[in-house]
Amino acid sequence: MTATNDPTENRHRPEGLGLSTKFVLFISLVIIVVCSGLSLYFIRQQSDSMRHALIEMGSILVKNLAHNSRYGLIARDLVLLEQLMNGVMDVDESVYVVFTGPDGKRLAEKSNSNMYPDHVIAESLLRSHANDVTITSFTADHGRRRERLYDFAVTIRRGNDIESPFFSFESEESHDEPSTARLQPHIYGVVQVGLTEERMHQALDTLIRNVMIITLMAILAGIAATMLLTRHITTPLKTLVSVARRIAGGDLTISVKSTTRDEVGQLTLVFGQMTDALRERDAQVKQAYRELEKLNQSLEQRVRQRTSELQAANEKLKELDRLKSTFVSVVSHELRTPMTSIKGYVENLLDGLAGALTEKQARSLERVKHNIDRLTRMINELLDLSKIEAGRLELHLAPINIVDLVEDVVENYQATARQKSLTVRVILSSPLPPVRADSDKLHRVLINLIHNAIKFTPEGGEIRIEVKARADDFVEVTVIDSGNGVPPDELDKIFDKFYWSKSAPVEARGAGLGLAIAKNLIELHGGTIGVESVLGKGSRFSFTIPVARLFSHGSDSES
Predict the structure, then answer these.
(1) How far is residue 482's CA from residue 459's CA, in Å, rounded to a whole number?
(2) pLDDT digit string (tens) for 292-316?
(3) CB atoms within 10 A of CB 310
(4) Can you tell me the distance from the alpha carbon of 65 to that of 85, in angstroms, rounded to the nearest whole number?
(5) Which of 518, 453, 516 is nearest to 486 (CA)?
(6) What residue ranges in 58-162 does DSSP mark as E strands?
(7) Using one digit for the tens of pLDDT, what is the confidence trace for 455-494?
């Protein structure tokens, strides 16, 4: 095999697809696939969400209707049933409402399109022992088109009332009936509500049309941007190829200027330098030596000047940090008084001092109170952090019983743990000597760790607080949870100020100061704090506190 340098060989070689064409085709294909896939996924998600909402609405309607119509069916009060049917038919998706008696005959029915369900649905429910809502889908003719309907049916029985999704009450009849009647409920009838998918399909068609338009616009815009980007990249390359061919032919007088600062621009600059570097090399070298000598002369002066500037900047940064700490401390202190006043007024409203509240108003005020408590905790954390950073936090040290302190904090959180069905256990080793610590500050550390464990442990999980004495005259407290854990790359940042784990939900995030304050408080006591975690299995937060005998019986206060 021999190699040739005949330029005619390359001149007559057929050209394939250019770089710009390949780039545009590839990126365009990627844009089309990604945009189309995202659009299809979004449409599918919206369709499933709409269908789920329709089924949920139908279940609520039929349950509420069954709850309200129970006594109307018993008394065969057709006027009451008519009013209830009219209320349900006001819902846009409603097609029909049917009340069927225990004998299988329809007592009342109403439809806005003369479409009713098959009698088989009601008859099968009358024969069965099902208490929950039965959902049946079927297709019905409506004019020249066919509609897909969902039938929501539920039986009304004695001794097994259907609970309304909006309110509930306990009837006197259920107290008077013997237990045998509740074991063998009597059927008063069947309530059926039919909902159509027509409005859902109309909304979905509009959504599909809009998504297709947006997707098409995104694809076209992406292709246009790709073409512009490709032209911006390949134009300098084409110019460089033309210049390289002339240089290969012996024309060294040509020069090319770089118009970009990327790799292509650097390559263009090198080619330009190749044409004029030969005659200017000596001048450039001499100029480089002169510049080097000048730089050597001014280097010491520049170093002194930069050092002075850095010192001034460092002093300014220290002053800014001091002003920042002062500002945070003053603002936090001033905010605490109005927040306490606001909380007092909210609690007065919740206690009914300003009059009776509706359930919706009470829920809103409870949410306000929850957020006030959360904001108050953030303000207290900012104040504590400011005191710690300023070195003004005092510790009132005294021998305390760590077991009593742990059990007191756990007892305060038992109600919160029960709301999430969490198991909280305290495991103690014996004997446990008293520790010398500031009771309030150590109480704050325990609250922070146990509160975090409850907040980040899913329902049905377990939290253990282990307390044991160590051989080095320290007592170790460990809070273990069965939550999602902390990612390994975040373990060394978890005690930093204003840091939130990326895996933590937004609604569960606070000021990001709790663990930082806990770390400072433990270290002020002479102890240590650390964390171990396995992602998906839980976390272990441990801290140590010195036992009381390690301290002298002098002053009870340290700053």
Answers:
(1) 10
(2) 777 777 777 777 788 788 888 777 7
(3) 10
(4) 8
(5) 453
(6) 94-100, 106-111, 134-142, 145-157
(7) 888 888 999 999 999 888 899 999 999 888 888 888 788 8
